[in-house]
Amino acid sequence: MVSTPIESILNEHRSFAPPEDFVANAVINSQAEYERLYAQAQANPETFWAELAAKELHWFQAWDQVLDWQPPHAKWFVNGKINISYNCLDRHLTTWRKNKAALIWEGEPGDSRTYTYAQLHREVCQFANVLKQLGVTKGDVVGIYMPMIPEAAIAMLACARIGAPHSVVFGGFSAEALRDRLNDAQAKLVITADGGWRKDAIVPLKEQVDKALGSDLVPSVANVLVVQRTKQTIPMLPGRDHWWHDLQKGASADCPAEPMDSEDMLFVLYTSGSTGKPKGVVHTTGGYNLYTHMTTKWVFDLNDMDVYWCTADVGWITGHSYIVYGPLSNGATTLMYEGAPRASNPGCFWDVIEKYGVTIFYTAPTAIRAFIKMGEHLPQARDLSSLRLLGTVGEPINPEAWIWYHRIIGQERCPIVDTWWQTETGGHMITSLPGAIPAKPGSATKPFPGILADVVDLEGNPVADNDGGYLVVRYPWPGMMRTVYGDDDRFRRTYWEHIAPKDGKYVYFAGDGARRDEDGYFWVMGRVDDVISVSGHRLGTMEIESALVSHPSVAEAAVVGKPDPVKGEEIVAFVTLENNVNVDEDLIKTLKQHVVSEIGALARPGEIRFSDALPKTRSGKIMRRLLRSLAAGEEISGDTSTLEDRSVLDKLREGA
Ligand code: 6R9
């Protein structure tokens, strides 16, 4: 990595104040209130978090130290005893929420289920006893490889209840990816299903588990629990495989939540390293519970009338923090959807919003760009008037996609929260609070109270307003990752030593490039590994891509650098077009010229390639690393286990 900062060339100056109707009922309802909270947290972070922890969560035993910070290791609420399953379930049972819908689930074939808090509690307790019967004890890691069905959330909460850390592996990952993760985590048991529905087809999960385990490829796994979902015939290995419904039927519903140490591991979740093996991100109990609770409460402005829907998968951190733990800890109604927009019903998301009266909708820019391509007639044919708040996560959102989301889905009535955060951070870090901070399309806006975010050069010095640099956090926060599972040295190197500590002060390096504007708004410019160096200018990917996406013919774009003897690198753009747009020389010229007129000659792509789809991770992030190899005509190396659809790469190769 080079230490020269990243240059910013984006020209985006629109601003959207929170709508008055929204502000009238918002929990945090003015910029002054946000600033007050921020200042309070900044002046004394420990007191700020301790007061919230005492007020918002149930503790079996109080902590005797709020923060023990031995860089880069933080311990929060030292010696406090807590259980997140208790905070998500039991404590609501003594209130009117006992019979409130906790989880609404809609399956892709159209089946549905609703669990009240009392029902969910019962299922979780029973399943926790099933785990115990199979010999799972406190500290044992449990692998979860499931479709998006209620049992996935039940399994997570049951593990948390007995103190068995879970390791959820996304249901779309291959058998090999599953095997590596189970082995790394030394999982004792795997919970899966016969299959799940996605895009009108069955994803054969149990078959993948069988392949992953082989005859003895994951020696630590003794038992496999299988939910019957898709009902095709599957082999069950006697002694190892058990049907969920058989064991759940007879299980006792009495299972008190285990008082966990605040710093006991809650889960490990693997995140892709761009090279090398995936990192097991470790989160612990008390701090994570508090941080996801508070961010859910303030960022989504939750109240008891809300039907809240996050479209992520539970195999992703967003599913952990903002489908399961954050919403349930707040006593909210969380909606879970099994499928994805598909040929047989491209408007299925809008059907779900209409059917359940969804009020808060949280999705990813990649999904929004796909909605745009599918056409606005789909949402317009449904009643979306229940919506009051929208959110995005996963990538920087291109301003034009933001405007579409605001206009077509939010009907200019709903604020949009653009939430920047990472698997490693546990919860939202830079995000607007919807009743308090005016939105600027493409900016994640401001740090959450207690988050001391900054933009610095490689020496750790703050850069001037509007100069690009590296996004860092200067002080620990309760939701931060504690280590890389089994590789603390990698934790230190990756996150805490890229920017050398100064006077013993460590800063957390997020791996993203960003700039802060004159109003204190943060603009994330993409991963620093993806920066393109043209004639000595270092350009982030987001701004060039957003310029391309702002052309009416372009649905999606990814830019990468290709080695160039004169300029260092030349910009190569991979572009997906809107339907019914034809490729010809004129279009190529027009698009290059469009980038020049939007952001300047420096960013003019040398080459534009068209494709039906771009290579993405399962969570929807464009894998520019692979495009970079393609553009340079090199073989693709490094980890590709997180790629969603391998055929996309083959097609791109053929088109070359
Ligand atoms: C939650 C999640 C983390 C990386 C992160 C950044 C990108 C996520 C973003 C965003 C700009 C946002 N990212 N949200 N970039 N604006 N609102 O996505 O976690 O899968 O670990 O990815 O995603 O590059 O560093 P994870």
From TrEMBL:
Residues 543-621 form the AMP-binding enzyme C-terminal domain. One of its GO terms (biological process) is acetyl-CoA biosynthetic process from acetate. ATP binds at G394, E395, P396, D418, T419, W420, W421, Q422, T423, D512, R527, R538. The modification N6-acetyllysine is found at K621. Acetylated. Deacetylation by the SIR2-homolog deacetylase activates the enzyme. Mg(2+) binds at V549, H551, V554. It comes from the Bacteria. One of its GO terms (molecular function) is acetate-CoA ligase activity. Residues 34-88 form the Acetyl-coenzyme A synthetase N-terminal domain. It catalyses: acetate + ATP + CoA = acetyl-CoA + AMP + diphosphate. One of its GO terms (cellular component) is cytosol. Its EC number is 6.2.1.1. Residues 96-483 form the AMP-dependent synthetase/ligase domain. Keywords: Acetylation, ATP-binding, Ligase, Magnesium, Metal-binding, Nucleotide-binding. Gene3D superfamilies: 3.30.300.30, N-terminal domain of ligase-like. CoA binds at R198, K199, D200, A201, T318, S535. The keyword Ligase applies. The keyword Transport does not apply. Its cofactor is Mg(2+). It is an enzyme of class 6 (ligase). Belongs to the ATP-dependent AMP-binding enzyme family. Catalyzes the conversion of acetate into acetyl-CoA (AcCoA), an essential intermediate at the junction of anabolic and catabolic pathways. AcsA undergoes a two-step reaction. In the first half reaction, AcsA combines acetate with ATP to form acetyl-adenylate (AcAMP) intermediate. In the second half reaction, it can then transfer the acetyl group from AcAMP to the sulfhydryl group of CoA, forming the product AcCoA. This is Acetyl-coenzyme A synthetase.
